């Protein structure tokens, strides 16, 4: 099996982190494709925003437009059938007895990576790019660097391949993530992320804040807002 090391498959949800990762990949690889997952998520507005967001990403750079290839949307609705979480059901966000918030969807990122690896193998794409982060996160065990490194080993053993998993946001906080986006695509990318990406756990799209759309109260909105304000404050 021949794998193109200068090619990447980006896990692209339509949110801030995955958009930054897509810009990162387009700045490094010659051929980039994207994959998204419909798993019955409560914030499915992301899926609505994805196509126009991808088109606008193309418009930021002729080089990016030439590199950005096919988008793949995968039905993983079985996840919502297996899990009862605040990400897949209309229930209040709260901490659980195991110390994890009920926004944690067990096995979600592991399944995402496994499906992405299967597609990458078929498409001869050498690198999987994901927005997992161990700095600003809610303690999700499948976002940890150790988890992703172990998964890379398992995938390559199981498929006799040499896929690489890249997580460019793993060791940076949200303010640094905004700065990374600026370094990759300038103020135009920042404005695109503000206006066209979606992060809110509750799927609120109506109100526009200085940091973007969202309810303004859920953990995802709070993290995004604080990071944006820190990022802007450091520029003054």
Automatic annotation (TrEMBL):
It comes from the Bacteria. GO terms for molecular function: ATP binding; ligase activity, forming carbon-nitrogen bonds; zinc ion binding. InterPro entries: QueC, Rossmann-like_a/b/a_fold. The keyword Metal-binding applies. Pfam families: QueC. One of its GO terms (biological process) is tRNA queuosine(34) biosynthetic process. The keyword Mitochondrion does not apply. It is an enzyme of class 6 (ligase). Transmembrane segments: none annotated. ATP binds at residues 12-22. Pathway: Purine metabolism; 7-cyano-7-deazaguanine biosynthesis. Its cofactor is Zn(2+). Binds 1 zinc ion per subunit. Keywords: ATP-binding, Ligase, Metal-binding, Nucleotide-binding, Queuosine biosynthesis, Zinc. Its EC number is 6.3.4.20. Catalyzes the ATP-dependent conversion of 7-carboxy-7-deazaguanine (CDG) to 7-cyano-7-deazaguanine (preQ(0)). Belongs to the QueC family. NCBIfam families: 7-cyano-7-deazaguanine synthase QueC. This is 7-cyano-7-deazaguanine synthase. It comes from Undibacterium baiyunense. The lineage of its organism: Bacteria, Pseudomonadati, Pseudomonadota, Betaproteobacteria, Burkholderiales.
């Amino acid at each position: 099996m021949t794998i193109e090391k200068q090619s990447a498959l980006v896990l692209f949800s339509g949110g801030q982190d995955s958009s930054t990762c897509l810009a990162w990949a387009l700045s490094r690889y010659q051929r980039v494709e994207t994959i998204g997952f419909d798993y019955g998520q409560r914030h499915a507005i992301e899926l609505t925003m994805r196509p126009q967001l991808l088109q606008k990403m193309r418009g930021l750079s002729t080089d990016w437009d030439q590199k950005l290839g096919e988008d793949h949307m995968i039905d993983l609705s079985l996840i919502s059938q297996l899990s009862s979480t605040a990400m897949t059901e209309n229930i209040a966000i709260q901490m659980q007895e195991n110390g994890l918030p009920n926004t944690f969807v067990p096995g979600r990122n592991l399944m995402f990576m496994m499906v992405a690896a299967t597609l990458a193998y078929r498409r001869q794409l050498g690198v999987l790019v994901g927005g997992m982060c161990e700095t600003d996160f809610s303690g999700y065990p499948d976002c940890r660097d150790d988890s992703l490194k172990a998964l890379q080993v398992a995938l390559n053993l199981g498929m006799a391949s040499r896929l690489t998993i890249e997580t460019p946001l793993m060791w940076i906080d949200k303010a640094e993530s905004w700065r990374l986006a600026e370094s990759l695509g300038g103020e135009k990318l920042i404005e695109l992320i503000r206006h066209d990406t979606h992060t809110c756990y509750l799927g609120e799209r109506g109100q526009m804040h200085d940091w973007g759309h969202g309810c303004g109260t859920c953990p995802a909105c709070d993290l995004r807002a604080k990071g944006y304000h820190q990022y802007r404050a450091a520029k003054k």
